[in-house]
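Lab notebook, entry 334. We have the chain sequence and a SMILES string for NAP, and the next step in the workflow is to get a structural model of the bound complex before anyone spends time on docking refinements. Request logged below.

Task: model protein plus NAP, output structure tokens.
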Amino acid sequence: MKVAVLGATGLVGRTMLKLIEDRAWVSGDPVLLSSARGAGTKLEFAGRNLECKEVTAEDFHDVDIALFSAGGDASRIWGPVAAGAGAWVVDNSSAWRMEAGVPLVVPEINGRLIKPAGLGEGGIIANPNCSTIQVAMAVAPLDEVFGVREAHVTTLQAVSGAGQKAVAELERQEKNPSSEGNDIFPRPIFRNAIPAIGAALPDGSFEEEDKVVRELRKILDRGDDLAVTCTATRVPVVTGHSAAVRLVCDKPINLVRAADALNKWPGVKVDSDPHGYLTPREIAGQATVHVGRLRAETNNPHALMLWVVADNLLKGAALNAVQIADLLAGKSQS
Ligand SMILES: NC(=O)c1ccc[n+]([C@@H]2O[C@H](COP(=O)([O-])OP(=O)(O)OC[C@H]3O[C@@H](n4cnc5c(N)ncnc54)[C@H](OP(=O)(O)O)[C@@H]3O)[C@@H](O)[C@H]2O)c1
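Result returned:
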């Protein structure tokens, strides 16, 4: 299948390129696209240097799968153009996620929504928000066993979740702590924690928190019956998001069954010791979602607490998108 990558020069785009290098369903060289800024950038693919070009409508002719990671504005413009030209767009931005008729997919949870692509049919499939993906991967197996009715989430999100300029901002502040100028984050991120990700919303939340609430319900095919709350924080970690999650379930919690359900879920590993955990530093570069600190709540037999860490650039973005593309190509997940 002919592939295009829009946002190829970015953190997610570069990670996607690495992941598709050895996918047998990719035919020929991918078309690498960016804005005018990145045009001319040479990117390595399968040992060769390919040149990135500024996106135009013609670039999507003959493309079967278009992997997008260029932000919401670009996705809103180029999504319908690429889909109209017959490509299947797998979009990493938030532009189409809550649109009726656009599947929001984590392959291990609702991959059934993806049918192998009819060539030339075209359409848009949305990749969820990075924090939502890893939380959903931990909640889905527990929902099957215990029936989750409340999910309360606090995230600790790495700076790479905000793109390469955000990583550069942390590195700049690390080198020169006395001049802590900040463009990407609302306050200096070095030696700090910032409970504000995305635009402020009228209900007192920030955009990232609203994404977790709405996207988790859509992925799990639930409505208001699933109560979700989220506080999203940015921390000075380069790669790897963490989330502290508290679930309240219909059925009383049995920790052995909870650990068993998590371990059996594809793409999830659990440390069932309540004091066991992994950190972002330990899991960066891994495809797996890791669950630890699994423990019951003393005063509520229906409540369970856990710690979830995953690589935001892999399962939180590029890997999940490429897994969706695997399904479109008629391949099982790898
Ligand atoms: N980073 C994560 O962990 C993560 C997780 C989930 C989802 N996402 C989403 O993935 C997208 C990209 O994230 P990132 O972290 O890779 O950001 P990034 O490092 O800042 O890269 C952004 C990419 O988008 C391109 N781009 C920006 N505006 C464009 C436009 N108008 N037309 C065409 N290309 C344009 C840039 O190209 P130039 O070189 O031309 O500037 C660059 O390739 C965002 O929507 C983000 O929300 C990111």
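Notes for the group: The radius of gyration is 20 Å. Worth checking against the assay data. The first strand starts at residue 3 and ends at 6.
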